[in-house]
Write the structure tokens for this entry.
Amino acid sequence: MSANSGIEGKVMMGANTVLNITDWSLDVKHKTNNITNFTEEWDTFVKGLKSATGSLKGQFNYADTNGQKALVDACLAGTPVALKLYYSTTGYYTIAEAYLEMKVSSKVSGIAEAEFSFTVSGAVTVV
Amino acid sequence: MGAKSGVVGAFYIQAATVNTFTTEACTLQTDKRTLKINDTTKIMFKNDITLFTVYKDAIAMNVPFEIEIDCIVFADEQDDTATYTLSGTYSDLTQKGGFFEWSLDVKNKINDVTDFASAGFEKKISGVKSFTASAKRYFVDDDFVDQMDGTLVITRFFTDIDSFESFVGYTHITGEKIGQKVSGIAESEISFDGHGKLIYCNIEL
């Protein structure tokens, strides 16, 4: 069996687990370059630049000093962060530099929630 | 553990009451441009530069600076061996009735700096940050429409009113969407555009 339960997921910032995160996503793109010419019936491409964006969602927790607080402070300061996005207990994507945006909300009938979206600078690697 | 119930959320906005202070002690930060007032009960500066005077070694300064939510920022670096004081005005904040939900959206206009040495991956650097916000309430009156006159107001969004944890910034009130339906009650959603920085603070009200 090779599927990974979501229970095994987590997000780390440096050596610290970011607390109260319920989901993460990563979207890796490849801007291929079209080189189709008149002699061809099908589109043909060569490789181009790769890029990545993603998001982390969860219950807002500013008391998480080395996790969510660090993400909030980095977002407000415009400084990049390093992230590891775990899909299993041992497997993860590594992002050396991610620039953050965030949405925070609170409603009386619910809880305070946070969503951090990020744009990656440089490579994404996977273990 | 750590999650915050919405029951302890709150939304506060600048009140009509303003308070003046005179020659309060300040500390020049390590960047030599940011000057913070030492008394944190007075950080909610009213965004009106004409109301502020900075003193260097007890002499009024005539240098350009800007007002931010908890500090002033000089255009140029200043002498970090001098003693700085500040006279100015800070605002009280008030909880408006009927609010039950708020949201904040902080953006960063990332700049692309990819070059041939980027090894096939796009490279980015931070750009200009901005924020917008909204707050929903049961419709009470039209005083927010009256405030859509370009005036900056301090808005404070609490994730936990009991411990005063909140996001604070200057905002323009940019809209109010009001609705009524026979099956419900009149509600409105106020929208805000941030002006300058947003900070996280836990200063007591």
Notes: Helices of chain B lie at 143-146.
